[in-house]
Amino acid sequence: MIYLLALIVFALPSYLIKFSIFGIPTTMLEILIYIAAVYCIINYFFIKKQGLQDVIKFLSKYKSWLIPISLFVVAGIISIIISPDKRVALGLFKAYIIDPIILFFIIISIVKSKKDVDLLIKALIASGVVISLYAIYQKITGDYTFDGRILSFYKFWEGASANYLGLYLAPILVLITGYQIVNDKKIKFKQSIIYDIAFLICAIGLYLTGSRAAIGAVIVGLFILIVYRYWNYIKPKLWLKVVIFGLVFLGALFSYQVIKPDYTLSPEEGSRIITSNNIRWEIYKTTREILKSNYLLGVGIGNYQNYFTQLTSDRINYPEYIAPFALTPHNIFLNIWVNLGILGLIAFIWLLYLFFKECLKHNHLTTILAIVMITIIAYGLIDTPYWKNDLAIIWWLIIALAVVSKDIKNP
Description:
single chain; mainly alpha; two-stranded antiparallel ribbon; 17 helices; 2 strands; globular
């Protein structure tokens, strides 16, 4: 079973393989998850002969997680009800909420050892390497977008952006480094070289995306990792703490300078970066406007771009330059809020609170997972590293690994 889970993690981009069963749209990734779920059910009830009381006992161990997870699901159901396109809403609810949560429960029920955790982490790293190698191949063969950016396997997704690749690789790059830190005394020299090569390949893949947000998020994650790795040396030295604080301040200031808009230039006159900044800030402004009148329930799952387009149809430059890029609000918290309402946002923040609370009181591995999540959140301030099949599963995978890793002593 653990190898099936590793296959699922390795094959996260397989959601790009789409088909229908009895008229119901699905993906290869989804089928793999359902196979794992059926296996778990058969194994639990028919092979191990467990009963309902055993299920209740198992769930009670994770009772603190059940309320926010339930609220997240309920928020999704409400968003389906208010969404004008029920078919799209049901598909997104299944892919972004139900499937990842199913996998979450499979992982916490199956993964029992450090060896299992290691296998899943290695599967995710291997996935990043494969997807990056294909990106490098595309660059060599000239298979890139009009502005020179690389899509990797996401080229098969209609309307895909190079940011999709950046969203996938950013947490993996930080995970590679963090995993080496956790296992620095256990990884042999040859193994260390392999991880270094994996990091280099993924870093090249990330660079080829041209995603400033992804690169910035990785820098944030790696910076925190370095501070964590050498904290015992830094802790007694006040001047080093001052330097770190100064670097954080300068980093925040520089980040704002990089992403701030420049309305003195039109889309025709500005570079891709200036145009991207201007579009993003207009999307933020309009999303706040949308939430003023839809703060309680949002606009319905999968309805954001349609709502945005209709609202701004008579505004200058919006139909041509802004609405086509408003697939999401380009902020993970705004995205959850506008799609799932205030209940969904509360559940999402609640889950993050439990996750960090779990991570910071256990072992080195959970601390590394917390830093990976911080990388995702840092990215999420200017993009949406959740609202996609593979990204939603990575988010829940990190939480699940933290939950099961709490019982692993000194990994």
